[in-house]
Amino acid sequence: MEPSPAPLPVTGIRRLLFAGGGIICVGLAYMGVLLPGLPTTPFLILASYCFLRSSPRLHRWLHRSPIFGRLLSDWETHRGMRRPVKILAISTIVVVVSLSIAFGGLANWLRFLVGGLAIAGITTILLVRTVREPSASS
Q1: How buried is residue 51: exposed, middle or buried, by Cβ count under 10 Å (0-12/13-18/19+)?
Q2: CA-CA-CA-CA dihedral for 77, 78, 84, 87, to nearest 10
Q3: Global confidence as pTM
Q4: Across all residues in the chain, what is the average pLDDT?
């Protein structure tokens, strides 16, 4: 499968809007690292796209990030996630949702909703391609 061509950079007010949107998405992605239930990856992908359209410098900065760089590289190169990232994401969802359902004092309908959303999130993670680590012998 051949990668699609990179979108063309924009100018003027659209450039400012894309850059601002990218910065907001990076902020939401950092919040997603800290707050279970708020996804990280979709905001990163959107931020990367916004920066690609508006600022090569911000795009490079995001891809060199020690926290997000490898995740973005895996997505853009392989359209997938590495196994340890998947395990961490699923483990976090299971622990936080289980604690919320058990000790959150939620109404029954809300417990089912939270559980259903967790199952949808885990299913999505499992459906994303798993990127294999390069072998040490090659």
Answers
A1: buried
A2: 130
A3: 0.72
A4: 87
